[in-house]
Amino acid sequence: MTNKEIANAFSQLAELMEFYEEESFKIRSYSNAYRVLRSVDSQLSEMSLNELKEIKGVGDAIANKILELTKNGRMRLLDTYLEKTPSGIVALLGIKGMGVKKVQQLWKDLGIESPGELLYACNENRLAELKGFGEKTQQNIKEQLEYYFQSLEKYRWASVEKEADDLLDDLSDIFEKVSLSGAFKQLNPVLDAIEFVIETDDFTKLTEAALLNEALDRGAIFEGRCKSSGVKVKIHKAEKGLFAQKLLQTSSSEELFNLVKSNVPDCKNLDEKTIFEQAGLPFIPYELRDMPGVESFKEIPELVKLSDVKGIIHAHSDYSDGQTSLKVLADYVRSCGYTYLGITDHSQSAFYANGLKPERVLKQWEEIELLNKDFEDFSILKGIESDIKNDGELDYEDEILKGFDFIIASVHSNLKMTEEKATARLIKAIENPYTSMLGHPTGRLLLARPGYPINHKKVIDACAANKVAIEINANPLRLDLDYAFLPYAIEKGVKISINPDAHSKDGVHDLRYGVQVARKGLLRADNCINTFSANDFLTALKK
Ligand SMILES: [Zn+2]
Ligand SMILES: [Zn+2]
Fold first, then answer.
1. How far apart, in whole angstroms, are the C-alpha atoms of residue 442 and residue 459?
2. What are the residue boundaries of the structural domains of the chain, listed by start?
């Protein structure tokens, strides 16, 4: 164990004890030990108990803990604190610039228990208004968190999109035949590297261009990291005439590629379209190429496109926790070419998000009616994102519930449930006659929070039986309903709505991430109700 590692163990111990508000003199002695031990010149791991005690600021207790560490690699006292602390909190404490007081406050005030939840809160602007934080701190924390997630070597698709596009441009300047490939090309929500295929004899030009850090030529693959962000990059080499074959290979499941190869052993100088044709297969779009069983498809359905979507459903205004006024948001959505906005602010029990008490619901309805009078080619629908309470009930009296045009029911609290309890809670909400749509069914945050476990089949069956639609929450952190369950939902006749869950004007454009995963789940426009007109959207939801 290095001196630095030993010192860090004391620093972590001090932080955790501070987190649990232990006696301050103990905390001080451990954080003091951290500072002292960092600057010791000789190897702590080779010192005896007496030698350790001779270091200024190191008493009996600390010397013994150093011995424990160097002998076993662990410290019992530290372990007891680590065991009783959620791993997400430990991770938060470890992030540069966070500090114990901040982590405590975020935990107490906003219920944040992990770096992913914190990033989500930053994106929703929750820290800007929080006492002791503010916009600038929020921005700093966000940058630290982005870094933290990159260092975990897993990336959300949306967070590497810009790097992928920039690198594609740079590579296209050097090579004639270049394509993105792998998980990025397949539009997978989470990936572990940005992959490319280039046609070249060797990687000399790539080495010379010095586009990547930590670049490594492995013969068939060139690896490195984005200079700006450190994101992992893999570049596959295609020999002359075999560009399409390499692209097919690196963007397909093994089953699909093997089938194609056995039908078309010589792919030289063929393009992908011709290869699929000669293999006797329909052209399989990249987003479906890792789908189990796709190699046996006789035809590919016409998948939903971004341009099919007519209405923006699930958006928050500054009535609750959105950044803009209802009017500004509506004007913006209209200017983007959409014909309706289903506004869904938070309901009253979402106090942290300024959820709407009944009198403010009435006020919003009044404003919507006024605004709608001025629109000819556009309308605002009166929606709400109603919390599903612990017992599965919705968040208002029937008197209010029946006044909405549609209701999205979502879980935002008590996320730690057994599968049985979570499933029953959702089904109770689905059976409520006022529920028209289920919001983000599992509450997951990708790479951050797994979400509560649910029996997807039972939930989808309940939606089918009660004519309740399910949203694909298009926020790139959520993408919930997971696309893997779409084929079953479609088979059961459940209607799907692709919803940006926008908290700002920019947030409206998250819609496209939802469309991407919808395509991976074989969704067509006729299964997707916000590709309908406003009237047909509401009719599809009526019971
Ligand atoms: Zn929500
Ligand atoms: Zn929402």
1. 11
2. 3-151, 155-296, 306-541
Sign, CA dihedral 36-41-47-49, equals negative
Spacing, Cα 316 to ligand 2 middle (Å): 7
> Tokens in use for 458?
């039972």
CA 315–ligand 1 middle distance (angstroms): 10
- The CATH classification number of 155-296 equals 3.30.460.10
Instruction: Report CA(410)–ligand 1 centroid distance (Å).
Output: 6
Per CATH, the homologous superfamily of domain 3-151 is DNA polymerase beta, N-terminal domain-like (1.10.150.110)
Q: How far is the CA of 171 from the centre of ligand 2 (A)?
A: 39
**What is the 8-class DSSP label of residue 126?**
T
Q: Summarize pLDDT for 148-185 with one digit per residue, the tens.
A: 887 778 899 999 999 999 999 999 999 999 999 999 99
Amino acid at 537: F
Cα(412) to ligand 2 centroid in Å equals 9
Distance 497 CA to ligand 1 centre (A): 14
CA of 330 to the centre of ligand 1 (A): 20
DSSP per position, 327-363: HHHHHHHHHTT-SEEEEEEEBTT-GGGTPBPHHHHHH
Tokens for 244, please give them: 């399409």
pLDDT of 500 reads 98
Q: How far apart are CA 381 and CA 538, in angstroms?
A: 9
**Contacts of 428-431 spanning 24+ positions with Cβ under 8 A:** 428/388, 428/391, 428/392, 428/393, 429/388, 429/392, 429/393, 429/394, 430/459, 430/462, 430/463, 430/466, 430/468, 431/462, 431/466
State the pLDDT confidence band at 416, using cuts at 50, 70 and 90.
confident
Closest CA to 511 of 499, 519, 523, 525: 499
- CATH class of the structural domain 306-541: alpha beta
Distance CA 249, CA 223 (A): 18
Q: Which ligand is nearest to the CA of 501?
A: 2
Cα of 373 vs centre of ligand 1, distance in Å, is 29
Q: Which ligand approaches the C-alpha of residue 440 most closely?
A: 1
Ligand 1: distance of its center to the CA of 440 in Å?
Answer: 7
pLDDT (0 to 100) of residue 543: 55
Rounded CA gap, 323 and 372, in Å?
21
> What is the number of the ligand closest to the CA of 410?
1
